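Why does residue order matter? Because the sequence determines the fold. Keep that principle in mind as you read this record.
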Amino acid sequence: MAVDPARARELALALPLASEAPHFDRLAFRTPRKIFATLKPSDRDINLLFDPDMRDFYCEQAPRAFAPVPGGWGRKGATRCDLQTVDELTLMSALRAAHQLAAPAPKRR
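Structure:
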């Protein structure tokens, strides 16, 4: 059931145009436009950058695995995911949702 940090990293980097960069004491996973998740490899959680509606959805669907990040970031949608509790399929769904929110807008012709 649990997902280890190394596997969470693999899943995040498997998304289209995802890259990794240092971000304070964490790793940031980003699209060319912006960060969609952060992970501290020694910890048991990954933070997902959702909007408030997506935060509420995941927190309601899996309250043991997802919770708002405390403070202002959480009010904006940032969500903590407990890697000890979440299953891989749910984490992948959450990563895809955060990635989609961070994806560049399609180019207009």
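Residues 88-102 form the longest helix (15 residues).
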